[in-house]
Amino acid sequence: MRKYSYSEAINMVVFKVKRWLEESEFKELLKIADYNGYRDGYRVFTLNVEKSLRNGYGVEDALNLLMELEAEVEGSIDDLRNAFNKYSVTLEWDSVEGFIMLHMPKTLYTGLKNVLSLVGARKSSETPDTSTYRIPPLNLDLLVRDLERLGIPVSDPAGLTRPKTLQVKPELRNVDLRDYQREALGKWVENKHRGVIALPTGSGKTLIGVAALVETGVRSLIVVYTKEQMMQWRDAILKYTNIEPSMIGLIHSEEKRPAPVTITTYQSGFRQINTLSPFFDMLIIDEVHHLPAEKFRHIAVHSIARYRMGLSATPFREDGRHEELFPLLGGVVYYKTPNDLVSMGYLARYRVVTVKTRLSGEERKAYEELRRKYWALAGSRDFKQVVEDARTDPRAREALRVHSQMRSILARAKAKIDKAVEIARSELEKGGKIIVFTQYVDQAREISERLNAYLLTGEIPTEERKRILEEFKNTDKGILVVTTVGDEGLDIPDANVGIMVSGTGSRRQFIQRLGRLLRPKPGGKEAVLYEIILEKTSEEYQARKRKNMGFDEMMNSGEGE
């Protein structure tokens, strides 16, 4: 029988059991208590909180066991609860490194060992009696739930775990969600307010995010890819909710004003998350396929937000890193393909026309020479392996440089520019509204000059971009030439014809560019996307592969090129 010191004795919680105990019941009691012997017809026990926690018994678990075995507690139940309360932990926010700091008595370690491992805790410092652990903020909610389950009190002077509700209850106005938007929001709610929603460009993903803001009613941090997207989100919140302008803050290179609803770019979010994190209960990540990049995933890891939503037309990455989104935000909880929404009448009917042309003799000669050099350097390795090996292998790095030169020859081929100009002029005569997609600024500038078309590149100032887009939006027919700046983040007005001259070759870019054409057209008019490819090159293979796969499969594929 255990001997107790005087200080322990006056703080002991004693309980006794009169009925016969099976051997298994007796052993179970010994997981939370020490046996004091048989007295006056009772088996007498003393609560041992350290042992309870070590065996995974929190205060409620211990109380349930005592109730089940008809135990009588000397004193009151509050005495038992207070005994557990002495084994409390404290949470603190490290604003420099952006971590949760957990301070706890060393006596709790055995009972919390599994929990600490589950939440990715790393020991930071210790004193003779206490230990401090550093915990990724991503896991705060999981940590608190497990501490509550074990009945371990949590001291939270910084209010990290307190609900962060908006001062005014938000409401949707001036809009009715479409069927699939309501369904997507519902699936997200069912998944405990976590997950990625994948819908085509033009399907109203931003409105789903706004509806999530109304659904939760909590302080929210919204992360977007471009400054233009920041303004689009702000405008959507103001248009479709009762949230006042003063409650919406923007954080980017030129402005830093946090507010209950804060919108920031990936770059600014990465720099500011350690400061912003404690103030927001919901994290919305737009264009979420960018998040797995090492720099940007920092935002999700160092956010304490319990509610998390990712939005993208194509969350699946060709390098397979989309799987990293699942622990950061939750899995894909809802997706619809372009064809799904076309059949529902929400997106325009479309067709893709492949137009083939050829390299000139001089271009072909240069291309073949580079191709032979590439394979001499790459050997039997596929492109993914070459990319991987380039970290340490000089030959692989040189192979990538040669590969880039090959891509440049294909992208800048004169025949492609000529064909794009020819198609654009033909479609313009039919009254078409046309977007020409290119990869390079000089190529875009040449096409724009030859067609006397609007030009949109990353070099053009923001206000000028707005003017160009507004003019193109208000014209009945016309041509807009865009570089990759048009692939994401710009609210490009409706067009019914797209012409792909050059690009990265990725399926994601193809789908994004197609999505620019899919907003419903008057009279059910069909959208057409021309892809100009060069015969007997890798472009022909990629186009054939896309065609055989189909666009619906492309949205759901993470395979490499």
UniProtKB/TrEMBL annotation:
The keyword ATP-binding applies. The keyword NADP does not apply. PROSITE patterns: HELICASE_ATP_BIND_1, HELICASE_CTER. Belongs to the helicase family. RAD25/XPB subfamily. Residues 186-333 form the Helicase ATP-binding domain. Residues 416-561 form the Helicase C-terminal domain. Its EC number is 5.6.2.4. It catalyses: ATP + H2O = ADP + phosphate + H(+); Couples ATP hydrolysis with the unwinding of duplex DNA by translocating in the 3'-5' direction. This is DNA 3'-5' helicase.
